[in-house]
C-alpha cells in the first residue's frame, strides 16, 4: 500500500513540478493541467483551462505548411495505433502570441473513457520562422495554381531550368519531367521562335532587367497555347546575366478573344464597304458580281455564287406554293482568284441559272440559318452534289456554306453560297456574317427589282404622256383653222346680212363668235401646256423682279378694273426660261385678281425665301380662297372649282403652272393664307 502511495505521490510531483507543460484532455475538453501549462499559455491559473478545447490554442497553419485540420487528421490516425507519438505544433497563447512546441502525445484509459496526455515543450523562434515560410510558400503555390501561372528559373551558367508543377500542367506535361532550356525552345511555335529568342538576346545585351515576351507553345495534346512570359534578369558584379527568373501566363483565351474582335472589326469594315459599293448598282448582274467578289474577300472562300429562281414575269406553282420568278436575267456569279490555274479560268463568269422547279424546291428547303456541309457531305447532300456537278473543273472541294434568299413575304428568291475555303469548315463567326450578307443581298435584290419595275412604269408613263402631248399638239393645231373659219364667217354674216337677220339673228351670231373665241382660248392654252415639256429653250440667268414686272404689265387692264394692289418684296436672280416664268407669274397673279372677294379689292403679296437647293416663292392673296379638300385637284387639267358666275377660264392655267415649275426642278402647292384667301408656293432650283 505504501508503495502504491509513493507511486501516486511521485506521479503528482512529476505532474505538478515538471518544467514541461502537461495537459490531460478528452473529447469534452481539458480535464487537468499543471502550472507550467497555464504559464506557457499565459492563462491565470490551471482552473481557467478546465473545459477549454486544446484546438483553441493551436494555429490554423503548421510548420510544414499544412492546415490544422490536415495535421490533426494525420495525428488521430497515428493515435489509433495506441502508441506514443512526438511531433511539432504551432500554438497560440491566450494573448495571441504564436510559438512552436514539441508535443509528446499518449493515449490513456480514463474512468470516463479514452483520454490523452500531452507534454508540451516550447521550441526556438527558428521553427516559427520556418513555419511562416512554409505558409508563404503554400499561399504562393495556391495563388500560382489558381491563377494558372507557371514559374520558371533559368540558370544561365548550367542551362538548367526549374519549371514549376503548374508550368508543366500548362503544357499538359507531367510535373518534374522537364528541366532543360531545350525543353522550352523545342516547344515554341516555329513561327514565333526567332522573335522569342531575339527578345531574350536583346534583354541580355541591354541594361534592362525587365523581360516580357509572348509566343505560342505546343501542348502535349498537339494544340498550341498562347503564353505571355514575364521575368527579371539577374547579373553578376561585372554586369553579365547569370539568371533569368519569371512566370508563364496562359493567355490563349484572351488572344482568341482579341482575334475574334479583330476579325469581327475586319468583317464589319468589309461589310460596310460591300454595302457602299452596292448603293449605285442598277442591275442584278452587277449586284451578283460585286457581292460574290466581296463575299470571297470577306470570308476567305475561293468560289462564291448566287443562284436565282425562274424567268421574268412568270409565276410557278410548286406543291401549292407560289414562287416569284422575276430574276432570271441575273446569272449566278462564280469568281475565281487570279492566282488560280489557267484551266480554272473559264471565259464565262457564271453557270446557267437553274430555272427548273426542282432547283427552286432545293432553295426553298434552305432557311435563314443556312446549311454548312463538310467535304464528305458534299457528295451526298443535294446542294453539294449539284455544286460538284456544276464545277467539274474544281476537284476536291473542301466544304460548302449556303443560305437562302427571301423577299419580304418570305418567298424564295434563290440562294447565295460559298465553297472551297482554305480551312475545311467555316467557323460560327463566318456563318453569322454570311447570314447577314444573305439578308442584305435579299433586300438589294428586292430593291433592284422594285427600281426596275418603277423604271418600266415610268417609261410607259413617259411614252403615254408623250403620245398624249403629241395628240394634243396636233389636235389643237389642226382645230385652229376650222375654228377661225367659223368665227370669221359669223362676223361676215353679221356685217353683210345683219339687217336681214334682225336682233335675234344677230344675237345668235354674237354667241357663236364668243363661243369660237372661248374655244380658241382653250386651244391656245392646250398648245401652251403641251409645249412646256417640249420646250427646247435654254436656261439662263433670269431676274425674277423683272419677270413679275412683265406679268403686271400684261395684266394692267385687269389690275385697273379691280383696283388690285400688288406688293412685291425683293426677289432673286434664278436660272430658268424667262418666257415660261413670265407665263407662270401671269397665271398666278391673274387668278388672284380673277377670284377676288366681292367685298374688297384684291391685295397680292409676292415674296421669296432662300433654301438649301431652291428658292421658295409665295403668291398670297385675300380672295375667296380654296377649300382644303381641293388643294391637290386644282392643279389637274380642266379642273375648275368656281364654275358659277361670270368668271371665265379653261381649267388649264394652274396645270400649266405646275408643269412650268416642274420644268424648273421644283414643286408647287397651295395652302390657306395667314388671314384670308390663298397662298400659292412654288420652288425654283438655284
From TrEMBL:
SUPFAM superfamilies: ATPase domain of HSP90 chaperone/DNA topoisomerase II/histidine kinase, GAF domain-like, Homodimeric domain of signal transducing histidine kinase, PYP-like sensor domain (PAS domain). It comes from the Bacteria. Keywords: Kinase, Phosphoprotein, Transferase. Pfam families: GAF, HATPase_c, HisKA, PAS_3, PAS_9. Residues 211-263 form the PAC domain. The keyword Kinase applies. Its EC number is 2.7.13.3. One of its GO terms (molecular function) is phosphorelay sensor kinase activity. Residues 474-686 form the Histidine kinase domain. InterPro entries: GAF (IPR003018), GAF-like_dom_sf (IPR029016), HATPase_C_sf (IPR036890), HATPase_dom (IPR003594), His_kinase_dom (IPR005467), HisK_dim/P_dom (IPR003661), HisK_dim/P_sf (IPR036097), PAC (IPR001610). It catalyses: ATP + protein L-histidine = ADP + protein N-phospho-L-histidine. This is histidine kinase.
Amino acid at each position: 500500500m505504501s508503495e502504491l502511495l509513493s507511486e501516486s505521490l511521485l506521479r503528482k510531483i512529476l505532474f505538478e513540478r515538471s518544467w514541461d507543460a502537461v495537459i490531460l484532455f478528452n473529447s469534452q475538453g481539458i480535464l487537468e493541467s499543471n502550472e507550467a501549462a497555464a504559464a506557457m499559455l499565459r492563462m491565470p491559473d490551471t482552473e481557467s483551462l478546465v473545459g477549454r478545447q486544446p484546438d483553441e490554442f493551436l494555429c490554423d497553419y503548421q510548420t510544414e505548411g499544412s492546415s490544422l485540420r490536415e495535421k490533426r487528421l494525420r495525428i488521430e490516425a497515428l493515435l489509433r495505433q495506441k502508441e506514443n507519438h512526438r511531433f511539432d505544433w504551432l500554438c497560440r497563447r491566450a494573448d495571441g502570441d504564436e510559438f512552436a512546441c514539441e508535443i509528446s502525445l499518449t493515449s490513456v484509459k480514463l474512468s470516463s473513457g479514452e483520454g490523452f496526455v500531452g507534454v508540451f515543450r516550447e521550441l526556438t523562434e527558428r521553427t516559427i520562422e520556418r513555419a511562416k515560410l512554409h505558409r508563404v510558400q503554400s499561399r504562393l503555390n495556391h495563388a500560382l495554381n489558381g491563377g494558372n501561372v507557371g514559374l520558371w528559373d533559368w540558370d544561365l551558367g548550367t542551362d538548367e531550368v526549374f519549371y514549376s508543377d503548374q508550368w508543366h500542367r500548362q503544357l499538359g506535361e507531367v510535373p518534374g519531367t522537364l528541366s532543360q532550356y531545350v525543353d522550352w525552345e523545342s516547344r515554341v511555335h516555329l513561327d514565333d521562335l526567332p522573335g522569342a529568342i531575339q527578345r531574350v538576346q536583346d534583354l541580355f545585351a541591354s541594361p534592362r532587367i525587365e523581360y516580357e515576351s509572348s509566343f505560342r507553345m505546343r501542348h502535349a495534346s498537339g494544340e498550341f497555347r498562347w503564353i505571355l512570359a514575364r521575368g527579371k534578369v539577374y547579373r553578376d558584379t561585372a554586369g553579365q546575366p547569370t539568371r533569368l527568373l519569371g512566370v508563364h501566363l496562359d493567355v490563349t483565351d484572351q488572344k482568341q478573344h482579341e482575334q475574334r474582335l479583330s476579325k469581327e472589326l475586319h468583317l464589319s469594315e468589309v461589310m460596310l464597304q460591300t454595302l457602299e459599293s452596292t448603293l449605285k448598282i442598277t442591275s442584278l448582274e452587277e449586284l451578283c458580281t460585286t457581292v460574290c467578289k466581296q463575299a470571297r474577300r470577306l470570308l476567305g472562300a475561293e468560289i462564291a455564287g448566287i443562284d436565282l429562281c425562274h424567268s421574268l414575269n412568270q409565276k410557278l406553282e410548286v406543291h401549292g406554293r407560289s414562287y416569284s420568278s422575276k430574276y432570271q436575267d441575273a446569272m449566278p456569279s462564280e469568281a475565281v482568284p487570279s492566282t488560280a490555274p489557267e484551266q480554272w479560268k473559264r471565259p464565262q463568269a457564271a453557270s446557267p441559272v437553274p430555272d427548273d422547279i426542282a432547283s427552286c424546291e432545293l432553295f426553298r428547303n434552305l432557311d435563314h440559318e443556312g446549311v454548312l456541309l463538310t467535304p464528305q457531305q458534299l457528295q451526298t447532300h443535294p446542294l453539294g452534289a449539284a455544286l460538284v456537278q456544276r464545277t467539274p473543273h474544281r476537284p476536291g472541294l473542301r466544304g460548302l456554306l449556303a443560305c437562302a434568299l427571301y423577299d419580304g413575304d418570305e418567298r424564295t428568291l434563290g440562294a447565295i453560297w460559298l465553297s472551297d475555303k482554305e480551312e475545311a469548315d467555316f467557323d460560327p463567326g463566318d456563318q453569322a456574317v454570311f447570314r447577314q450578307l444573305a439578308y442584305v443581298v435579299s433586300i438589294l435584290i428586292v430593291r433592284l427589282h422594285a427600281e426596275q419595275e418603277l423604271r418600266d412604269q415610268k417609261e410607259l408613263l413617259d411614252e403615254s404622256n408623250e403620245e398624249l402631248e403629241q395628240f394634243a399638239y396636233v389636235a389643237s393645231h389642226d382645230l385652229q383653222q376650222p375654228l377661225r373659219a367659223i368665227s370669221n364667217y359669223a362676223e361676215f354674216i353679221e356685217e353683210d346680212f345683219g339687217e336681214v337677220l334682225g336682233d335675234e339673228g344677230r344675237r345668235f351670231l354674237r354667241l357663236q363668235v364668243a363661243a369660237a373665241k372661248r374655244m380658241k382660248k382653250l386651244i391656245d392654252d392646250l398648245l401652251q401646256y403641251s409645249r412646256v415639256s417640249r420646250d427646247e429653250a435654254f436656261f439662263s440667268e433670269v431676274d425674277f423682279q423683272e419677270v413679275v414686272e412683265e406679268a403686271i404689265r400684261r395684266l394692267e387692264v385687269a389690275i385697273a378694273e379691280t383696283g388690285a394692289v400688288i406688293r412685291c418684296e425683293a426677289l432673286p436672280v434664278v436660272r430658268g426660261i424667262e418666257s415660261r416664268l413670265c407665263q407662270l407669274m401671269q397665271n398666278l397673279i391673274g387668278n388672284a385678281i380673277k377670284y377676288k372677294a366681292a367685298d374688297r379689292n384684291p391685295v397680292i403679296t409676292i415674296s421669296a425665301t432662300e433654301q438649301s437647293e431652291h428658292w421658295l416663292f409665295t403668291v398670297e392673296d385675300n380672295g375667296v380662297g380654296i377649300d382644303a379638300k381641293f388643294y391637290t385637284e386644282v392643279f389637274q387639267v380642266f379642273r375648275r372649282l368656281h364654275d358659277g358666275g361670270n368668271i371665265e377660264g379653261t381649267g388649264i392655267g394652274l396645270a400649266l403652272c405646275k408643269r412650268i415649275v416642274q420644268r424648273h426642278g421644283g414643286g408647287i402647292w397651295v395652302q390657306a393664307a395667314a388671314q384670308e384667301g390663298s397662298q400659292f408656293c412654288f420652288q425654283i432650283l438655284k
